[in-house]
Design brief:
With about 120 residues, the chain is mostly helical. The longest helix has 12 residues. It is globular, with a radius of gyration of 13 Å.
């Protein structure tokens, strides 16, 4: 795992889409360390919006956070597929977003991260 201190994660593959990957909640929590510099899991905003309850949320809609124009005008709803694409390459998935993060290259790490994010209700 590459540690990126300015990471601001969004999410990835789900167990239903890739059951052979064997998502690991604890590995996902560990992978979240690269996101924690900007994102909370407790409902408070930091440099990035809280990721508590992100699954099923419309992009750019968490109350009290100042989003980029690209994020606010997006019609994306965060689910396994949209989060996987965004986490793999945020700029390609949503051109114009301002999250200073190059992405998570490892599909297994993304799947584990998504599994962890799903637990944050």
């Amino acid at each position: 795992m590459t540690f990126r201190p300015l990471a601001a994660c969004a999410l990835a593959l789900g167990a239903a889409a890739f059951p052979a990957l064997g998502q690991d909640l604890n590995a996902g929590k560990a992978a979240f360390a690269q996101c924690a510099a900007c994102h909370s899991v407790d409902g408070t905003n930091g440099a990035g919006p809280s990721l508590k309850g992100v699954i099923g949320r419309k992009a750019g809609s968490f109350a009290g956070f100042r989003y980029s124009r690209a994020m606010k005008s997006s019609t994306t709803v965060w689910d396994d597929k949209t989060l996987d694409a965004y986490l793999a390459n945020p700029q390609a998935a949503m051109p114009g977003n301002v999250m200073p993060f190059s992405g998570v290259a490892d599909p297994k790490q993304r799947a584990d991260l998504i599994e962890y994010l799903k637990s944050l209700k």
